[in-house]
Structure of Nucleotide-diphospho-sugar transferase domain-containing protein:
Amino acid sequence: MSCIDSLVTPLTKVRHQLLYLVYGNQDVYRREAKFSILTALSQAKNGERPAIRILTDRPDDYAGWPVDTVLLDEATLTRWQGTHGYHHRRKACAIAAGMQWAEKTLFVDTDTLFTRHPSQLFKFIEPNRSVMDRFEYDWKDVHQRPDYQKLGRDLRSHGVTPDNGFKLYNSGLCGVTDSDSALFEESIRLIDEWTLGGFEIHTIEQIALSYAMRERQVVEARKHVYHYFAEKRFFHAMQTYFFSQHGEQFSQRLVDLCSDVPRVKPFPSAWRRLKIKWKLRHQKGALRKVGRDLLYGSAAPEDPYYSVCRHEWWECASREILRWDESQQKKLLSQKSWPQQLPRPDKPEDEKVIMNYLKKRVAAR
């Protein structure tokens, strides 16, 4: 049974569409999707809005938004996951199902911000030329990693070696035409083959798609979007604050206000970063990283979107400390006041706040 079987929709075919997949009841992914959509709309000129389609099991979440929703029932989500329990298979199925509704489709991961108008990316999508988020690495560069050994054996059965490998792309953004169904038939077949008997790589989906695209031209989208997959906690904090202040009911005002939210992870000013680097000049390795993250959080500029990220910097430090053995943790955290090993933050009031935060995180381990 193909991905599009039993997926009934009254959508009419359009020239271009942005396509999202959002399922489950976690608020964070709904906010991600809505904020991504706002950034796309904020780039529109003269009211030129792209067609936006969302495959979702919760269409009511987007009532009033300028989007079309397609209901995914539980049976479809289960079937799209496949028999091997690999839930990212659903993404390949979503693209295969959605590409029939437009001549050109740009699939967008919800953790993606548009920094330019999507129309500029649609110009690159042509028969035998696709758009992907970014190039990540060549097969020859990763084939010896322990978690890639099983995949390497599977690829050798297809005649792939380190010498004749292929480029691997992040599929956070994927642009294809309505004539590219064979790409996804091959991708889904490979996903099922490579997840048989278990899998150790969570990015099998994008590796399979990269392999299917090995003979075609691929254009990177990174100059047009920002995919914050490695920095989610910071953007989640800012998006939670944004929607708590302005609500989720769609309006042009919401589109305009989204421009106030930083499009990059919030860092202290260049001067403050230089000052922190100087303070940590005698520290090395993990302790230097912990000190940097603690001081970066304390040195956040006086802006509400930066302020809500203070704890995220401290969370980065706590995760590093949690990797240490118990004696190292005790040496740092058992002191009565600020640790002697680290320079003090500029804001004295942060010393107690930071230490209480770290002790609570370690105690909850």
Q: What stands out?
A: The chain has a mean pLDDT of 93. The beta strands are 14-22, 51-56, 68-71, 102-108, 112-114, 129-138, 167-177, 217-220, 225-227.
